[in-house]
Design brief:
The protein is α+β, with helices and mostly antiparallel strands. Helix content is 30%, strand content 15%. A three-stranded antiparallel sheet has the order 4-3-5. The longest helix is centred in the C-terminal third of the chain and has 13 residues. About 5% of the residues have low confidence.
Amino acid sequence: MLPVAEVLHSENQPQRTCIGCRKKGARSELLRLVAESTGSTAVLVDERRRMAGRGAWLHPSEACLALAVKRRAFGRALNGATGTADVERRILAGKQAGPLQKPPVAAAKTVQPESGSEN
């Protein structure tokens, strides 16, 4: 059973549906996509999640991108937008970078008790 704090935390996160795999996920796990406003059919990745207009959501994985293209989900979700070059660049760039590398943790110093505090 999950602790109450974890249950409350996961329930408060906005849920969105991926247009590729159709699974729900936290908003923080998905990319927000919008149609370019200049009248072209390009789909843009909204990094800050603040661009105007209707948005669609996609997991940042090649599998979900392929499913979305196969299902022609971009055109339905974003009113005719089909150019996915920006989305493909973003997903492939994320794959090239790999997982975030954390610096190695330095060994912790052992703290010696002050004189007179030993038993």
